Amino acid sequence: MTKHSKIEKIETAALSRRSFLVGTGAVSIGVAFGPLASRAFAATTPYKAGAWVTIGTDNLITIVSPASEMGQGSMTSVPVLIAEELDADWRKVRFAAAPDNEPKTYGNPVWGNTLTTYGSGTIRGYYEKARIAGAQARKILMWNASQQWKVPVSELTTEPSMVVHKASGRKISYGELAKTAKLPDPLPEATKDDLKPVSRFRLIGKDLGRAEVPSKVNGKAKFGIDTQLPNMLYASVLLPPVQGEKPVEINDTAAKAVKGVVKIVRVQRAWGTGEGVGVIAETVEGAMKAKKALKVTWTNEAKARSYDSAKVAEENLAIARDLSKEGVELMKEGGDAAAAISGAAKTISVEVTSDHVTHIPMEPINATAVINGDKCEIWASNQSPTSLKAICAKTLNLKPEDVTIHSTFLGGGFGRRSEGDDAALAAVLAKEVPSRPVKMIWSREDDIANDLFRPLTAQRIDVGLDAQNNIVGWRHRIVNESVFARSNPFLLNNVFKGKDVVSTDGFELKYHVPAYVAQYVRTERGVAVGAWRGIGTGYTKLAIESAVEQIAKMKGQDPVAYRVELLHDQPRGVKVVQEAAKMAKWSTKRPEGRALGIAYSDANECHSAVVAECSVDRASGQIKVHHMWAVVDPGVAVQPKNTAVQMEGAMIFGLSAALREQVNIEKGEVQESNFHEYKPLRMSEIPPIDVKVMPSGDKPGGMGEPGVSPVAPAISNAVAALTGKYLRQIPMLPERVKAALA
Predict the structure, then answer these.
(1) What is the pLDDT of residues 614-646, one digit of tens each?
(2) Predicted structure pTM score
(3) Which of 441, 462, 479 is the last residue of a domain?
(4) Measured distance CA(226)–CA(512) in Å, rounded
(5) Residue 571 domain-assigned?
(6) What angle do CA 551, 556, 559 make, to 5 degrees?
(7) Do residues 536 and 502 make contact, with C-beta atoms less than 8 angstroms apart?
(8) What string of DSSP letters covers 673-739?
(9) Are residues 333 and 401 in the same domain?
(10) What is the pLDDT of residues 503-542, one digit of tens each?
(11) Is residue 313 part of a domain?
């Protein structure tokens, strides 16, 4: 594991004539040489970077990761991409998180992209761009060596952090070159053709150890909730029990009597989701105690007042069935699916509903803000400093450049920390006490009651079959509330043309069918929803895989063999399905009362398959998962062991959501309050999980989420193999299982 240098003082400076900018499409990557660049810094040290890559005179190379580090390893994986093509000595590489500011070189932005981390998009987005930057920096180092030695660049090569002239036996370190480095005019260009083939990778595909882990082990890692500033105040917020409501009357007499209370104010939550009451106090305990003492009468007019999650599930399902309820066409391939279905020899219909689930990151929602004049600073665990900057600037009526975001490590994100509503609330509270930092902390009850849940979704798949049960047409309808209608309506309406890529994610088929159409029907009932790990694939793949399983049974085919047949033009898909079956010993007889189920997923440009071994207690309806096997082809596995760990972690998410996690809303009010009512699986309930990573050498997919999607369908298909009954509601609660078996 790379050790981080201790830093006594950090200096910053603008990029100069010894810095350059790599333009790679939507991203500009800055590289700098010289004494300033040599100041290595630890991941926990605040640093206003002037470049992505700094090559120092002490031979240390600092590489900034643009992605939030929330346990997925991005602080290591993005630097690995640059270091590979730079031919850097990994032992001399240091790491840091990207700042939210926009340093410039010759008037051009260095970062040139939004700093966001969700949708498993980091490696997919930076894989080529970051490598090109490393390749160009390497070319410039070689040019400087050629000038110093008076030899052609074509005679030079590199080895880790050294330029080499084999003909004369000379070598020079990158650090030595950085002392006098100049930029050639014109700069040598690097393109995709300059990048190494997979066979020559020295760092990519190797298990190098995660950059941030040492600081987490020794306790030096700083999360948002660890923020401590001089003269700090603390805040707690009472939000309405139903989204969209506002205080009518506030009785704060008892709250003001709590020791240390500084101020009690009305606050507006983002996106029109309601107004609340904020308490600012000298201590955390005082703020929370005063919040509990508040007596508030709320309005009774919000749209969400009529929201009942059980009824909404049925209403959404009715919409999915009703073809007169037209929606947005997500995709259409092949022939006329509707005509093929209506003219088919027979049809099957698969209906799936999935409940709300909540994010519950172990680090409670929190943010710290301070307002000085027309400047605002925010400290927060977040997945998108860009989003935080925008929402805080809008909330405070400031220019974005007057808002500074200090990003920390995240104690869990899963989509929740991409929104910025927590930072906006902290900023509103800080405005009430100018020049004093305010740390706002939510309790677990606050977090669950006011989360932006995964959309409650109903789906219907109609499949037309010929007389031999071959597919002739496939229609998939998805009904739920839109994430982007709340968070970014412009993007939804003008870019995606009404297609919410979060709420509907995963509808695409890799299976070969002659006629296919997918439709999205958006509902609006006043409950704001958000992205949850795995996003739409966490429920869409259950509908797809359940339909495939049923057709395989009708054809009398083995479920593995049938999937291989449907994936005949997807060799990566075929391989993961076959290998997962092999790992689980698919054809081997299972113990009495157990069966295997398999499911395939193409989520996030990865190909994966999961096999689950399950049993069912028919009396109680309790499902027990005894073992899970998974195979994933991520294209390129930048860090293979970490890829396997990400797959396993996402599978546990998928398992917990499949069997137990559920948010119930009655008359607009969330019924669960804490972990005694909202019950994710405990560690003792997690079965053995075996994961095999099978890189194909293709372009990389995203690995933060693909493990979620195949788990629920694998369990459902195992239960179908045992009982002949398909479970098409998630979570698969015991009472639902008993009803299905009956």
Answers:
(1) 999 999 999 999 999 999 999 999 999 999 999
(2) 0.92
(3) 441
(4) 51
(5) yes
(6) 60
(7) yes
(8) -STTTS-PPPGGGPPPEEEEE---SSS----SSTTTTTHHHHHHHHHHHHHS----EES--HHHHHH
(9) no
(10) 999 999 999 999 999 999 999 999 999 999 999 999 999 9
(11) no
